[in-house]
Every structure is written in structure tokens, then in C-alpha cells.
Design brief:
Protein name: Phospholipid/cholesterol/gamma-HCH transport system ATP-binding protein
Structural class: alpha/beta
Low-confidence stretches: 302-329
CATH superfamily: P-loop containing nucleotide triphosphate hydrolases
GO molecular function: ATP binding; ATP hydrolysis activity
Strand order of the largest sheet: 6-7-8-3-9-10
Pfam families: ABC_tran
CATH architecture: 3-Layer(aba) Sandwich
Number of domains: 1
Number of strands: 10
Keywords: ATP-binding, Nucleotide-binding, Transport
Number of helices: 12
Organism: Actinomadura meyerae
């Protein structure tokens, strides 16, 4: 089962450059969360702070009861075993075949024998659709396969938290769609906590349970996907609707005068698309929140969304679904 990550008052700078300050939010256990923001807002830096590869200037990162910035080196080593990290480029060793790349963490961090390692590696390769690719080198496979190999390696220690840094970078839309479906299926099967950094708005609209936006050296908003996508906050609305009008500029934020000079048009939330479902039809605890849940949390579904006038999802009869599975948020 996944682990909750609680961030409180986090600040990070490099010299005089403040990356972000006073960042506080909770990443729910067992759910898929996505973190977005304009280039240069410190999304990858944030991931490195979560696993202790970088230390913040101040603040707390609570993972499984421990405060990451205050852990000693040997405590950090043990804590990191809760994490599986998928790097942007896959970070595969070019001289090793796919099998040995995936087996590497098991050989480095466990005392398992080769027969047990083989069983685990082949199981994870099957989970990500790489069966039969054991002997291939990274240079002999596609970008999408490299991502999946990196994901398999991130899974071999059975992590409770999976971090993915722009996993869709360099992938075409079709491979991105396959990768997104894989994340949903893995979350349903493993119950791990997922945090995905991405620039892909299409991914943000259909994959995560929760969305966050970094901008102007801070966290603008973090919450349920439906809440963020229906927000009229200027930066949030501009970013998730890919508009030029708003506080986000070409290289950095616009000044107040530039924003004031722009023609004003009231924000019109785009329809919220149905969230991706696991391939095998199983339920994930966080997915497809019912209209009653949205209303309870003060979220008004925008016109044209998949929530009907009675607050029912038109793809699922939520009342019956909840009763059958005895599921609640």
C-alpha cells in the first residue's frame, strides 16, 4: 500500500535564486498525483528534495513518519527503499542489457540469489510489457521501451512511492497514451503512491487523481483533478487551457502592467474528460469521484463535464457502485 507524503513550509534556493518557498501540501497515499508548472519552476528539484538528493533551506518532508531533511545518511539510505524513481531519460546503463539494468537495484541493495532475482525481474518486465527484451541493449530499443525499462527497474524493490520525472518527455502521443494507461494499471495493481511531473496537459486532464501547479516560486494550487481543472484562478486557468492571456509569460511571469493591458475575457472552464480506467475494470480507491463527493467539497462541475445535473457520472452509476463495493473516499 502507498505512503502519504506531507510537505510543510518547504523553501529551496541556489545562491540568491529562490526556486520556491513556503510550499505545503499532502500527497495522498495510494493515489496518482501530477505536478505541473512552467519551465524553470523547480519541479525536478522538488522530486530530488522528496528523496533527499537535495536538502531544502528549511521546511519538512514527512515520509512514513520520518522527516527526510533531518535524516542521517544511513537513515536516508533505508528511507529511499520506499521510493522507486523513473528518471526523465530512463537513466539506463548503456553497457548493460535490459535484464541487467532492471536487476541492478536487487543486486546492489538486497542479498537475494540469482534465481529469485530472475523471477522478480521477469515479473516486472511482464508488468510493463517488455517480455522477450531481456538481451537487448538500451541503444537497440525505442524511447518508449527505455521508459518502460526504467519503470520496471523502479518497481523491483516493491516501492510504496513511485516518482516519475517527465516520463512522457520525447514520446509521441500514442506512446504517451500507452504509458499513462500503464501508470493507471500499476496503481490499481500495486496500490502505490504515484507522483508524476509532466508538461503534458493531455496527461494532466485524464491520468491523475490530484493536480498541482508550481508558479512564482510557490505552489499555486493542489487538489482533486476536478477542482483544479474547473478553477478560475488566472495562472491555473491559463496553464491548463494553454492560453497566452494570463500571468504566465514567454520566459517568466508577466508584470502587472502587461497583464492589465491584455484584453479581458472571463475564464470558461473546459469540459472535464473522463479519467482513465484500469484495463481490467478494477476500481482504484481514488478514481472517478461521485457528484456527491464533488458537491461536498465545494466543487461545481463545469458545463459539459461528465457529471450530469443530478451529480451522477454518466459512465457509472455511482450510488450502485459504492453500494456494491462498499467504497468511500
Amino acid at each position: 500500500m502507498g505512503v502519504e507524503i506531507r510537505v510543510e513550509g518547504l523553501r529551496k534556493s541556489f545562491g540568491r535564486q529562490v526556486i520556491w518557498e513556503d510550499v505545503s501540501f499532502t500527497i495522498p497515499a495510494g493515489e496518482i498525483s501530477a505536478l505541473l508548472g512552467p519551465s524553470g519552476t523547480g519541479k525536478s528539484v522538488f522530486l530530488k528534495n522528496l528523496v533527499g538528493l537535495l536538502r531544502p533551506d528549511r521546511g519538512h518532508v514527512y515520509v512514513g513518519g520520518g522527516d527526510v531533511p533531518r535524516l542521517r545518511e544511513h537513515e536516508l539510505y533505508e528511507m529511499r527503499r520506499q521510493f522507486g524513481v523513473l528518471f526523465q531519460d530512463g537513466a539506463l546503463f548503456g553497457s548493460m542489457n535490459i535484464y541487467d539494468n532492471i536487476a541492478f537495484p536487487l543486486r546492489e541493495h538486497t542479498k537475494k540469489g540469482e534465481s529469485e532475482i530472475r523471477r522478480i525481474v521477469l515479473e516486472k518486465m511482464d508488468m510493463v510489457g517488455l517480455t522477450g527484451s531481456e538481451a537487448k541493449l538500451p541503444g537497440e530499443i525505442s524511447g518508449g521501451m527505455k521508459k518502460r525499462a526504467g519503470l520496471a527497474r523502479a518497481l523491483v524493490l516493491d516501492p510504496q512511492i513511485i516518482l516519475a520525472d517527465e516520463p512522457d518527455s520525447g514520446l509521441d502521443p500514442v506512446r504517451t497514451a500507452y504509458l499513462n494507461q500503464l501508470f493507471v494499471d500499476l496503481n490499481a495493481e500495486l496500490g502505490a503512491t504515484f507522483l508524476i511531473v509532466t508538461h503534458d496537459i493531455g496527461t494532466a486532464r485524464v491520468l491523475p487523481d490530484n493536480l498541482g501547479l508550481l508558479f512564482r516560486r510557490g505552489l499555486v494550487m493542489f487538489g482533486p483533478r476536478e477542482m483544479v481543472l474547473s478553477s478560475t484562478h488566472p495562472a491555473v486557468h491559463q496553464f491548463f487551457n494553454a492560453r497566452r492571456e494570463g500571468p504566465i509569460g514567454m520566459a517568466e511571469e508577466k508584470d502587472v502592467a502587461d497583464v492589465a493591458a491584455e484584453p479581458y475575457s472571463p475564464p470558461m472552464p473546459a469540459p472535464i474528460q473522463p479519467q482513465l480506467m484500469p484495463s481490467d475494470g478494477r476500481m482504484r480507491p481514488a478514481m472517478r469521484r461521485p457528484g456527491a463527493w464533488l458537491r461536498e467539497h465545494g466543487i461545481t462541475p463545469p458545463p459539459g463535464s461528465f457529471i450530469d445535473e443530478q451529480g451522477r457520472d454518466w459512465l457509472n452509476d455511482w450510488d450502485a457502485l459504492v453500494a456494491q463495493r462498499q467504497w468511500h473516499r
